[in-house]
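Chapter review: from sequence to fold.
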Amino acid sequence: MATYLITTQEIKTNTPMGGNVDSDRLMSLIYDAQVLLLEPILGTKLYDYIIANYNTPLTGLYLQMYTDYIKPILWHSVYADYLRTGNVLASNGGIYTNQPENANISDVESIKYSVKHYQSKADSYIDRLDRFLCDKEDEIAEYTPTQDNDYDIKPDSNINTISGWFFGNERIDNSNTTGAGGNGEEYLELE
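The C-alpha cell string follows.
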C-alpha cells in the first residue's frame, strides 16, 4: 500500500484547486510526485526514512524539512500535474473531456501558463530544499551518496525539474577561451 506524505485536503487548501475535486483523482498524482520528483532529490535512504517516520512524528531537522520544503513541493507539483490532466476522464463509457454546464474550458495557453506558474513555485521549494540539505548534510545521516542497494537512487543536487528550468552550476571546460572565471573556463549562460 502506498504512503502519502500529504493529503488531498492540503492541496486544496494551499493551491487554488476547488474543494469539490474528487480526491481519488489526486492520489496517483501525489504518489508520482513523491517517487519521480522527491525521491531523486532526497535519495532513497532519506526518502524511505521520511516515509517510514513522518507519522511518528518527525522531529528536528526532519520535521523542518518535511514542513518547510517537502509539503510545498508536493502541493504545487500535484496541482500543476492536475492542471495538465484534470479535464480528461476515463470511465467505463470511454475517455472524455469533462465540462460543467455553466463554464468554458480554458484554452491550452492559459493552462500551460498556470502549469508553469505552479511548477515554478515547486521549483523554488526544490531549490530551497537543496540548499537546506547541502547546509545540513552532516546532521542528516540518511542523506548520503552511499545507498543500500545498487538500484537505489542517490541524492542529486542538480535536479532538472518538470518545468524545464535548470539553474545548476555546470561549467564547460574550454581551455582556448577565457570565460567569466578568467581561468579558461566558460560558464553556461541562459539565453
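Two observations follow directly from the output. Residues 169-191 have pLDDT under 50 and may be disordered. The two ends are 45 Å apart (CA to CA).
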